[in-house]
Structure formats: C-alpha cells, structure tokens
Amino acid sequence: MPKLARMHTAEHLLSAVMRKHFHAPRNLEFHLGEKKTKCDYVVPGPLSVDDIRKAEQLVNEQIQAAHPVTAFKITRKENTDYDLWKVPETAEEIRIVRIGDYDAQPCSGEHVSLSSEVGTFRVASFEMRDKDRVRIRFKLN
Is residue 102 a contact partner of residue 67, using CB atoms and an 8 Å limit? Predict the structure, then answer.
C-alpha cells in the first residue's frame, strides 16, 4: 500500500477526530508527505499536550477499528451533507470517501481499503499558530 494512501486516510481520521472532539470544523490546510504530514485547524482555544495525546489515541482507536474505506460519487445538486469548500465550483460530480460510519468527506485522493492498513498514528509535534489555530504534524509507524 502506498505510504501517501496511508497518510491520506490518517489525515481524514485526524480531521474527523478534531471535528467531533475538539470543535474544529475542518482542516484549513494540509501538506501530505510520505514521512510527515501537517494539518492546521481552527479550534475554540489553545490545546494542551493532554488534548493532543487524546486526539492521537482517538485516531488510533479508529484505525484499529478496521473500518472499510470506500468511495462513491454524488452530483453537486444531490449534496445536502458534505462540506464542499475544497471542491472546485465547476465540479458537478463529487467523490465522497467514507471511512466506515465514522467519517465521509469529499476527496479525490488515494486511500487504503481498511483503516487498519494505516498503521500506528503518532503526533510528531504540535504548535498553536495563533490563539485559535493549531498545527499538528504526524507520522505513521
């Protein structure tokens, strides 16, 4: 399995954890890399080391759940549930990547078939870039 597919699925799981547990509506930007990936999120306030360790634990729980990772397409007119802010306005057909019942987001990237193929998620570092913006860098073992 290509490393970027593993990283990309991990990014989806981290973004879902940040949304569900830390009230970060979406990642603002991210850089996908084979060795390390970084994601920025708007959060209600500063995150602590304990918060980041909790996020790491929650991502690993979802990885270990061995969720099937599938994709399907919808049209822009059919969309009622998905945040399309990264999807070009000219795109009429939109690919949705679903990770079990845990997350589903528009995405055109490559992913693993089961979340358990991701490996162990580890936060390499984090920093508050502003009072309400956190940057998280992660690696996979």
Answer: yes
The pLDDT value recorded for residue 26 is: 82
- Angle, helices 49-64 vs 3-22, to 10°: value is 120
Q: So what's the pLDDT on residue 27?
A: 86
Give the CATH H-level superfamily of domain 3-140. Answer: Threonyl-trna Synthetase; Chain A, domain 2 (3.30.980.10)
Residues of the chain with pLDDT under 50: none
Q: In this structure, are residues 115 and 63 in contact, taking their beta carbons and an 8 Å threshold?
A: yes
Which pTM does this prediction carry?
0.94
Cα distances (angstroms) measured from residue 1 to each of 5, 61, 117 = 7, 20, 8
